[in-house]
Amino acid sequence: MSDKRIRIAIQTEPFDIQxxxxxxxxxxxxxxxxVTFTGICRQDNSLQALELEHYPGMAENELHLIVEEAFxxxxxxxxxxxxxxxxxxxxxxxVLVATASSHRHAAFDSANFIMDYxxxxxxxxxxxxxxxxxxxxxxxxxxxxxxILGRWRAKTAN
Amino acid sequence: MTKFLYFAWVRERIGTQSEELxxxxxxxxVRELLxxxxxxxxxxxxxxxxxxxxxxxxxxxxxxxxxxIAGSREIAIFPPMTGG
Lengths: 158, 84
Prior knowledge:
Oligomer: heterodimer
Low-confidence stretches of chain A: none
Order of helices and strands of chain A: EHEEHEEEHEEH
Strand content of chain A: 25-35%
Number of helices of chain B: 3
């Protein structure tokens, strides 16, 4: 058997994906699948760096609510969400979502769900810096990210 | 006094991250609150001009613009979220 393992963190420092997989699977005898998603700062046009801002307190709360909702929809044994804030250069890791279940489908689907909800519900904001030292531009929210939530509601209505 | 928090470009345009304000008794909904705040000066008007785009959280919970603000201790105003 296994216990329910949840870890939510907002931090400036990098995360250790292997350590999070171990957290989700060590001595969890009925965990058969861990899926991880890593969001990475990619080079886009002349983008050199991203700056991540968040609403302390509410960001953690929203991530907990999203994870709890995932637990209510899929048979999960664990979930990890780590979101970095502050200045991040191209190729740096921004966000990690990891989910653990007995079978892969629940782990894949719930990781996807958590990531989609995080994008539209968790209070984080990205600013793009085209060159070092520039004032930067706030990233616009994508309407498609909102539409995805409607699709999840239709798909997972219970 | 109610604590106001601003994030991202709302914070930059208003020029402060947080402040304590007395809300007039006539202001009862989020929409009325945004209209009242926008009347506080050019920086507020500029930050809050596109009311349909803005997001508001009362005591760290997302709300719609017709929500009543009564009893809220912390009101946060910010653009649509772009994390992940």
